[in-house]
Amino acid sequence: MPKRCSWVSNSPLYEHYHDSEWGRPTYDDQQLFEMLMLELMQSGLSWLTVLKKRDALRTAFASFNWESLARFTEEDVARLKEMKAIIRHEGKIRAVLTNAAVARTLANEHGSFAHFIWSFAPNKQDNLSEQAIALSKALKSAGMAFVGPTTCQSFMEAAGLVNSHEQDCYLYQPAK
What we know:
The protein has helices at 12-20, 29-42, 47-60, 66-69, 74-82, 90-110, 113-118, 128-142, 149-158. The protein is mainly alpha-helical.
């Protein structure tokens, strides 16, 4: 059995996430938006809770397609708040809808959402926390909600903007 990062529990779902998704560089607009929204949903909860609800969240939020989310109404918010299979925090639900419109605008302004996000990738001498704070400020300034520095740092690690695998993890690669 390979040695994994210490935060990985012995849950097969967690192991699969760590081994096949977490920390892999992601450049797809839709995937990056989904990853950021899942990090938002995780706030105050365990990541395993989010992983267990991810399929239901994808279904509930139209695969995190920002064009589809732009058409959601107050009736949709009410419906989502009643869905037991998802995280039903109204503030988080509304944040996903607000953030979808902002992500679409950022994609239009910067050529892609990925281009905007990756402009915050720390280079070797940058401090990840400082870059996460900068990304958080930029996203909030653009109108996003529930995207504080901790959420942004977790997102940057998950989306592969930085390799945060621990040194004794089999997926660790030293910075170049």
